[in-house]
Specification:
The chain is α+β, with helices and mostly antiparallel strands. It has helices at about 1-30, 35-40, 75-80, 150-155, 270-280; strands at about 45, 55-60, 70-75, 85-95, 100-110, 110, 115, 120, 125-130, 160-165, 180-185, 200-205, 215-225, 230-240, 245-255, 255-270. About 20% of the residues lie in helices and about 40% in strands.
């Protein structure tokens, strides 16, 4: 009888342990954050004559209470600098009956010859507040997702880590609704820090005209750092795609064309500078 009771107790304990693990797994699923989809919904094509580029929109809290946020447009500074007029058109999207439709929308970037955006004093990053139409579908991505140098150190981000990028290569879109195209590559340069001396890092990925200004991010369900594996997701914006670098290509030598293989690399500007650029804006006021 004592043995039977012992076995029964073991069965109950085992059942409770399994149930707790399942509940923990459900909890992790409920709090997980899909940065890929959120950024897909927050990244937009710049539609202007003779101009190709990508922007993405983040939410910045005013610090005055929950739910009080402003939309901040982020892109490479040269994208806005190359605009000759006072506005740009973004290909926003709206969701109707479960489907997405294009929603072209003009954004003012200058007023009486004065830029409405701020530029980082050292690197090719710009930021500005934007008022978007209520029907525009925008993923909720906070500026808190921007990874500064301390975050790079904490999560031990290193060469070989896979980074994903969103953009419009060659002005191409993923579908008629105007969503961006996702590509990925591994961090291909070292050292990464400090960003003050290493303003950008390279990602082994082909980029084309139109990709500039798109977000580069890292999203993992689990990650090894501080000597052990941690359950994620670790969803971080690590930078902004700048102008690409090309190694190789056609070279003229002694009157002959030497065709060497081209190695295309993405130049990603550290998110540390995005945070600094956002901080140059005046305090957020509720839209």
């Amino acid at each position: 009888m004592r043995l039977m009771c012992g076995n029964r107790c073991l069965e109950i304990v085992s059942f409770l342990a399994i149930a707790l693990l399942l509940l923990a797994g459900c909890a992790r699923t409920e709090v997980s954050y899909d940065l890929s989809t959120a950024l897909m919904r927050s990244t937009f094509k710049v539609a202007a004559e003779g101009l190709r580029g990508t922007v993405f929109v983040l939410e910045r809290s005013s610090g005055e209470g929950a739910g009080t946020t402003c939309h901040v447009l982020i892109t490479a500074a040269h994208v806005l600098e190359n605009v000759t007029g006072d506005s740009i058109e973004l290909v926003l999207r709206k969701k109707t009956d479960g489907t997405y439709e294009r929603l072209p929308f003009a954004i003012p970037i200058r007023e009486e010859g004065k830029d409405l955006w701020v530029r980082h004093p050292k690197v090719d990053i710009s930021a500005m507040y934007v008022d978007l139409p209520d029907q525009a579908d925008v993923g909720r991505v906070s500026t808190d997702r921007l990874a500064n140098d301390d975050v790079f150190k904490k999560f031990e981000i290193h060469p070989g880590d896979e980074v994903m990028c969103l953009g419009y290569p060659g002005a191409n879109e993923a579908n008629p609704a105007g969503f961006p195209i996702l590509r990925s590559g591994k961090i291909a340069s070292y050292p990464l820090l400090p960003s003050e001396q290493n303003e950008y890092f390279l990602v082994h990925m082909e980029v084309l005209s139109g990709d500039s200004g798109g977000p580069a991010y890292l999203c993992q369900r689990q990650r090894f750092y501080a000597g052990q594996t941690h359950q994620g997701p670790e969803a971080l914006i690590v930078g902004v795609v700048g102008q690409h670098r090309v190694i190789g290509g056609e070279k003229l030598c002694d009157g002959k064309t030497d065709k060497t293989p081209s190695l295309l690399l993405a130049k990603v500007i550290h998110a540390q500078f995005v945070k600094e650029t956002v901080e140059l804006l005046k305090p957020c006021e509720s839209n």
